[in-house]
Amino acid sequence: MAAKATTLSSSEEEFVSTLGNEYFDRKFFLTLWHPTAEWCYFVAFVLTRLLPREEGIVPVILRIIRDMLRSKHWGFPPEDFSLRLHPNAINCSEVYKLAEFLPSSNLHVIYLTTALSNDAVRELAKMLPSSKVFELSITDAGISDRAAKKLASVLPSCNLNQLTLDENRITDAGAIKLAKMLPGSKLTHLSLNKNQITDAGAIKLAEMWPGSELTHLSLRDNRIEEAGGVKLAEMLPSSKLAEIWLDNNWFNDTVAFMLALKLPHSQVEVISLDDCNISGIAQAGLKTLKNKDGEKIYTTNLPFEIIDY
């Protein structure tokens, strides 16, 4: 028997028409993901029924999330639902719509890689405490400290354990606010690659480690120098960090020396220091280190690495 075509209610028709029909002219990649074949077939069915109506891909996906993912009868683990919207797939007005129905959805993972205003991120952040989202990535969106501060303010009251804000315009002010909110939050993974963070931001992040659950931190391609690098190294034994990625910062052998002293007393399993102005002699000293559990620390991206299995 032929499957019944999916239709929209009058309110849904209004929702779609408000957002417009220009999405077929955009170049983007969009994935609504669940790791089961049945789920893939379901999404394919819905899209094939809706796309001929030329209502626009993004509003359709948002409607599916709003109406279907919040349903209890699908029998899928809700933590597996994710929305990944890549370049130009969504604009600021659509982020407002996304924020509105987060509290009633089973959406747990959101990836946004598109230009967004700080106000749009603020609206999204306001809804996080009443949502089930535990992983949020806003990359190359052009957001600044205003957005970072708003996200930081909701960390203690939301379910986020992974936050990625790579390739934005976040400075020490945003990093310091994020650092202050780490204690008491559920955050275990924080990535602030390719921002404008200097020693002040790095120092505050390090100072907040003892009271946090952070296990993975990435600060690649920032502007952290000796003072910040030394503080990061000094505080490693007081942290729960298992992986720390510090490539392309402005370190020196003083930072490497402090790392050599502190890493053996830490839980660190992986540290990445590519292009950090560390001499060959200092690199050689880091290669032989083991952490406090006696496990060899993998110093990724350093030359002549030998990994013991």
List keywords for this structure.
309 residues, disordered C terminus, Leucine-rich repeat, LRR (right-handed beta-alpha superhelix), 37% helix, alpha/beta, elongated
Classified by CATH, the class of the domain at 197-309 is Alpha Beta
CATH evolutionary superfamily of the domain at 197-309: Ribonuclease Inhibitor
Strand content: 5-15%
Main β-sheet, in a few words?
10 strands, mixed
Determine the mean pLDDT: 77
Second CATH tier, the architecture of the domain at 197-309: Alpha-Beta Horseshoe
Going by helix content, strand content and strand pairing, the class is: alpha/beta
Shape: elongated
Give the radius of gyration.
22 Å
Oligomer: single chain
Order of secondary-structure elements: HEHHEHEHEHEHEHEHEHEHE
The DSSP helix count reads 11
Q: Helix share of residues? A: 25-40%
Topology, element by element:
Blueprint: H1 10-19, E1 30-33, H2 37-50, H3 57-69, E2 82-85, H4 92-101, E3 109-112, H5 118-127, E4 135-138, H6 145-154, E5 162-164, H7 172-180, E6 189-191, H8 199-207, E7 216-218, H9 226-235, E8 243-245, H10 253-262, E9 270-272, H11 280-287, E10 298-300
Parallel strand pairs: 2-3, 3-4, 4-5, 5-6, 6-7, 7-8, 8-9, 9-10
Antiparallel strand pairs: 1-2
Helix pairs in contact: 3-4, 4-5, 5-6, 6-7, 7-8, 8-9, 9-10, 10-11
